[in-house]
Description:
Elements: E1 5-9, E2 21-23, E3 33-35, E4 44-45, H1 53-56, H2 60-76, H3 82-90, E5 93-97, H4 101-116, H5 126-132, H6 172-185, E6 189-193, H7 196-207, E7 213-217, H8 222-230, E8 238-242, H9 245-251, E9 256-262, H10 274-284, E10 287-291, H11 296-299, E11 309-312, E12 327-331, H12 333-346, H13 352-362, H14 365-384, E13 389-393, H15 403-409, E14 416-421, H16 427-433, E15 438-439, E16 449-451, H17 463-469, E17 475-479, H18 485-496
Parallel strand pairs: 1-5, 2-5, 7-8, 7-9, 9-10, 10-11, 15-16
Antiparallel strand pairs: 1-4, 2-3, 6-12, 11-12, 13-14, 14-17, 16-17
Amino acid sequence: MTADIRVRRVTEAPRRGDGRRFLVDRLWPRGVRTVALRIDGWLKEVAPSHELRKWFGHERAKWDEFRRRYFAELDANAGALGPLRDAVGRGPVTLCFAARDVERNNAVALREYLCREGVGGPGPDRATLCVHAGGRRDAETGGSCTPVYTSTAYAFPNPTNENIYPRYFNVPNQRAVAEKIAALEGGEAALVFGSGMAAISTLLLAFLKPGDHAIFQADLYGGTHHFVTGQLPRLGIRVSLGRTPAEFAAAVRPETRLIYIESPSNPLLRCMDIAGVARLGREIGAMTVIDNTFATPINQNPITLGMDVVVHSATKYLNGHSDLNAGAVVASSDVVRRLREEATDLGGMLDPHACYQLERGMKTLVLRVRQHNENAGRLAAFLRGHPAVARVHYPGLPNHPDHKIAARQMRGFGGMLSFELRDPSRADVMLRRLRVATPALSLGGVETLVCVPTRTSHRTMSPEQRREAGITDGLVRVSVGIEGAGDLENDFAGALGKG
């Protein structure tokens, strides 16, 4: 596997640590220091060199000259790269820099230099990560699958001087699947939970306290909306809702500590300008969180767009077989360490058997998502032309209000769509007529699942809240599976009738 070299900005002074992060300062390479960085705030993924115009104006020649001189300096001080070369050979490393431009330029140029020398590169393909990242081989037999560690009693003292226990989120199966998810999202670390809502609620409780204010996207998953509007105010946490980055900015208060979005959203598939939200969060010093369940890390990586935290209902696409409940949070090592403290108290861990099942499901994630993308695009185009359908919500359609945003930040448009019936009273008739698709709760499985959100995923919202969110009685949500696309078109044609 190709090594993974990442570049990030840090806002706090480094401390001595694990040798996986390297501080790039003004004196590099003469003053190289290996450190572990405590990042109490925000990380920013640095753009590759072809996007560096904002650092060198519009004069590419200036960047080329800087890089030439820097490479020559590295060639003359090759010995200083020894610790870094060794670290890259053992796994992913992070080149960290402070806010000054000279340090930022040094870090980006250093990554280019290492790639040129064959030391590292942009990292493995996502398909390779799906299969291999995080996996543990059986030490006794060399088996290729991670063993299931069923024990709840682990030795202590032990070589790592760590208390290992399932509720502490640190048994081998939990670590294996967390590392795979973190690798796919481009994050430093992750935790896996017993459900998506366990992940979301634990995160919010860990980083919000009485007196704080948080901003949430208005059209959220119903379970998240219910928790945010029902539970957080009881704890003295004030909540505002918005639909656009401009509305978020207008809602900012001095005590705003967190901004939370979904993109694409559930169930209207609205797409938020992720980079814009991340930028707002950095400007006001607020943590930015995105639910990336609908997109999956195959289609979209919000951390590379500047978001601080990514959450998933791993029940859905990550597992992909409609037979497991799980959730995940991906973020910096420091955020995950603080989150683990809260999670240990609340106890929402994922059982080792379920971890093994989730890890196995994720090995085929790339293959499944490719088919989901293709089938959803075809079905959306078909439904758009059907006389019984008033409107189709799918970000891959050119007439979708957020199509340009989606095209800019997504590699694929996903397997979720929704549509509105011209006659809402025909919803039950349509559901009964389906033969390939299944009327059922949930989403993200290999089979096509269909539901009416007002009676399922968003049932806990009041009629007034659903109207404000744009969720009508005639709205039908479809999680498009991996069946034959033609079979799905025929199935919906028969179920919808002639309009």
